[in-house]
Amino acid sequence: MSPRRLPRHPLRSLAGRLLLAVGLPLALLVLIGATVDYVSARRLTDESHDRALASLAVGLSARLEAEGDGDLAAHLPAMVQALSRAQPDDPLHYLVLQASGAPLAGDLALATLRRAETDEDTQIFNARLGGQPVRVVQHRYRGPDARATILVAETVNGRRREARELLYVTAATNLAIALAVVVAALVAVRFALRPLDLLGERLERHEIDELRPLPLRLAPHETVPLLRAINRLVSRVRATARARQAFIDSTAHQLRTPLASLSTQVDLLTREALPAPAAARVAEVSQSVQRLSHLAHQMLALARAGSEGAAPVPMAPLALADLLQDAANASLDAALARRVDLGFETGEARVIGSRWLLRELLLNLVGNAIQHTPEGSTVTARCGVADGRPFLEVEDDGPGIPPADRARVFERYVRLNEHDRLGSGLGLAIVREIAERHGAQVSIHDGPGGRGGRVRVDFQPLRMLSAD
């Protein structure tokens, strides 16, 4: 039965927690970096465009000296229009005012943006023109032949677009670096935690029959305390299993003697000439003693066969035909007492297992078949190989087991016939426990022609075994 897995959650995973610890600061750094980059990009583009606007204003002022023939109003628009074609997203607006404040050329709407003159010849400021934000350069020209105030304005669309483009480039670079760091961290975490994954896989394969300490020689230093704690736990479990097994063996030994003695005395008593009422009571006692002996044997067998906390059981290659021979010798008296025709069909089949556990499995299957079939029935036990898998099988022509009850009969203390005074409800539970310890599967089928029942134990596929 595979161990129940805990639901996966990022915070329950060391890799998830490490990646979260790396990823969150990186995401925060990328966000902060994007903000700083955008502010820097805006500052750089503003400075670049402001210098261009200031240069344009100075150029227009130089034009005032060059145009002495009075055709300034015709040349300035052509000059500004040429510059506007170079940046179509940001149309340029200009206005040249004479010293008296009279307009000389340009867009009269800029007159409302004019600011009071200061000690500086060039002023740069933000304003709104026609409902749109604009950047304005106001240049005071004081030449030998003319004095004027020049205003040049442009919208901020172009500079904002350039700032965004610069932001996209830097943000993409930062994001790529962050993703590369996360991927590198993921690979590093996977590599660093691989020993823990291997340890988990090994622990999952660590069967109860292999209560051996885990090796520490090649383990990472960080996992050594954990492995030492696991080894201490394994040692305690092994000691507990051995103590439990010793108790079971001692109990079995202590119970057999008084039960055998009691059974013998009751059998002798039944042979005495007793009054009818006393003879009936002695017969009842004899039946109870038989049931007690059978129940004690079944419970001890179940305790020894169970895998939970049991001591390791030596496994070795063995022939299933030899087990059938032992079962024939042990079950013959019970079959004769119920006049059951007990037969055995042996085939060449070998498995790796515990001889006494598999003998107990077969005796329970044969005993159940003999006990639960009518007198005069036929019970057949066989072994062989089918589809590369060794099997044991016990078949009878009795009432069989209804399909609805076939899963339930493997539970402990389940009896389909409540009037069965000798059954303990443990026989098939023992069979299942022993089969699971050998990696085998137990199944129940109908007998030949749909009559009776057939219990089959399929073992793991054949391995390459020596001829022994």
TrEMBL record:
Domain Histidine kinase: 250-463
Keyword Metal-binding (UniProt): no
TM region positions: 166-193
EC code(s) of this entry: 2.7.13.3
GO cellular component terms attached to this protein's record: plasma membrane
First and last residue of the signal peptide: none
Annotated CDD domains: HATPase, HisKA
GO MF entries: phosphorelay sensor kinase activity
Main localization, broad class: membrane
Keywords: Kinase, Membrane, Phosphoprotein, Transferase, Transmembrane, Transmembrane helix
SUPFAM superfamilies: ATPase domain of HSP90 chaperone/DNA topoisomerase II/histidine kinase, Homodimeric domain of signal transducing histidine kinase
Protein name: histidine kinase
Natural source organism: Ideonella alba
Organism lineage: Bacteria, Pseudomonadati, Pseudomonadota, Betaproteobacteria, Burkholderiales
